[in-house]
Amino acid sequence: MRLIPYLVMNGNGREAIRFYESALGGQVLNQLSFGEMPENPEFPLPPDAKDLVSHAVIQIGESELMLSDTFPGQPHQTGNQVTICLSLNDPEKARQYYEALREGGRVNMELQETFFSPAYGSVMDKFGVTFQIYAEGSH
Q1: What is the pTM of this model?
Q2: What's the DSSP call for residue 9?
Q3: What's the CA gap between 54 and 70, in Å, rounded?
Q4: Quick count: other Cβ atoms within 10 Å of Cβ 117?
Q5: Could you read off the pLDDT of 99-126 as tens digits, one per residue?
Q6: What CA–CA distance (Å, rounded) separates 122 from 125?
Q7: pLDDT in 10s for each residue of the chain, 139 residues
Q8: Which of these, 10, 55, 93, 106, is most buried using a 10 Å CB contact count?
């Protein structure tokens, strides 16, 4: 398992990526926009949001930094935009960590299979820390 800081930006994700590339010598490993994601009729994407960053991974030294823009229509509050991503390669382990962290906390997104992960979810623990649980690998 790896713990990865995950930054949630307010529409300035591309600018943040360029900044961390320059300031910290980062190298973009992966970058995806909301417009490149499969369409979801339950959450229609406004045309002006298609170029916003839905997920990016930046290699900085021996570590990684992940970031995205806030999903269009979701609230963004400066000061709580840093989350911790638990990245592992075992979906069953992902479920165990998810269940343990949600006890006494609040579910932001149920752990589920997505187009990018066999098990992904988000939970705020009882101390107010938000964790994204992300199982790598094919699904």
Answers
A1: 0.76
A2: E
A3: 8
A4: 21
A5: 999 999 999 999 999 999 999 999 999 8
A6: 10
A7: 889 999 999 999 999 999 999 988 999 999 999 999 998 888 888 998 999 999 999 999 899 999 999 987 788 877 778 889 999 999 999 999 999 999 999 999 999 999 999 999 999 998 788 999 999 976 5
A8: 55
Residue type at 114 in one-letter notation: T
Instruction: List Cβ neighbours of 128 (8 Å cut-off, separation of 6 or more).
Output: none
Contact in structure between 54 and 69 (CB atoms under 8 Å) = yes
Do the beta carbons of residue 102 and residue 54 sit within 8 Å? no
Exposure of 78 by Cβ count < 10 A (0-12 exposed, 13-18 middle, 19+ buried)?
exposed
Distance (Å, whole) CA 127 – CA 120: 21
Distance (Å, whole) CA 85 – CA 73: 22
The length of the chain is: 139
Classify residue 67 by its DSSP letter. E
